[in-house]
UniProtKB/TrEMBL annotation:
Name the record gives this protein: Enoyl-CoA hydratase family protein
Family (UniProt): Belongs to the enoyl-CoA hydratase/isomerase family.
Keyword list, A-Z: Lipid metabolism, Lyase
CDD domains linked: crotonase-like
Superkingdom of the organism of origin: Bacteria
Organism: Streptomyces viridiviolaceus
InterPro entries: ClpP/crotonase-like_dom_sf, Enoyl-CoA_hydra/iso
Pfam families cross-referenced by the UniProt entry: ECH_1
PANTHER family the record matches: (7AS)-7A-METHYL-1,5-DIOXO-2,3,5,6,7,7A-HEXAHYDRO-1H-INDENE-CARBOXYL-COA HYDROLASE (PTHR11941:SF169), ENOYL-COA HYDRATASE-RELATED (PTHR11941)
Claim: Lipid metabolism is one of the keywords in the record: yes
Length: 251
């Protein structure tokens, strides 16, 4: 259990997340993921990183139970900082990152894939931000990199999900394949990227990041301020404990 790194082929590093039962990451998990991605990208032998997950789904976001067990705001601060570090590690990775997504990709999972360079998805993959149902905010920055603005807002306000096939129509998913083909499909793309010159691919990653119209680190940090405000006000705990039921919000 945890985060592991393997090297199945020359030039490719695979970072795998495994936090049963649903890959809802505790604070330490986000930091472990950030460290693994940064280390893989810094390895001069690596020219592409594949980010994948074991188990039922790619990522279910923050471990809410960890937050509910804690007192004060340490868990909230830890989750905010840990997510920020993990998302930034994917974005800032020195080489391209291919996200291989299966099952659910929720909350923090959107932050990871939204900052990845390419997404290969299984045909059972779904993507969404149920943050408002969990007493939180954030990662609209990253959802906006996957879908058009008005759809992003509707998805954010309703906590609905979209399928991999729908994201493929918007061009944000490279390929959609049967679940059993996901690893092979992700490695196929990674292999094509890794065939490039290592120095040049690093220059390309830096150049593309440099022309991004939105500073994803600053934008996400701005969102996190509202998450913390929700925590301080007490509304986060109230909504989180009821999973955002309409009845409780209207009472």
């Amino acid at each position: 259990m945890g985060v592991s790194t393997s090297a199945p082929e020359e030039g490719i590093a695979v970072v795998t997340v495994d936090f049963p039962p649903v890959n809802a990451l505790p604070v330490r998990g986000w930091y472990e993921l950030a460290a693994a991605v940064r280390a893989a990208g810094a390895d001069p032998k690596v020219r592409c990183v594949v980010l994948t997950a074991a188990g039922r789904g790619f990522n279910a976001g923050v471990d809410i139970k960890e937050m509910q067990r804690s007192t004060g705001h340490d868990a909230l601060i830890g989750a905010n900082r840990g997510c920020y570090e993990a998302f930034a590690a994917v974005y800032d990775c020195e080489v391209p990152v291919v996200a291989a997504v299966h099952g659910f990709c929720l909350g923090g999972g959107i932050g990871l894939v939204g900052n990845a360079d390419a997404i290969v998805a299984a045909n059972d993959a779904t993507f969404g931000l149920p943050e408002l149902d969990r007493g939180a905010l954030g990662a609209a920055t990253h959802l906006a990199r996957l879908v058009p603005q008005h759809l992003m807002r509707a998805l954010y306000y309703t906590s609905r999900t979209v399928t991999a096939q729908e994201l493929r129509q918007y061009g944000s998913v490279w390929r959609v394949v049967p679940r059993e083909r996901l690893t092979d499909a992700a490695l196929e793309l990674a292999r094509e990227i890794a065939a490039k010159d290592g120095y040049l691919i690093r220059l390309a990653k830096a150049a593309i990041n440099g022309i991004d119209p939105v500073d994803v680190r600053r934008s996400y940090r701005f969102e996190q301020g509202f998450t913390f405000e929700a925590g301080l006000s007490g509304v986060a705990d109230r909504v989180r404990d009821t999973f955002g039921t309409v009845r409780e919000q209207q009472s």
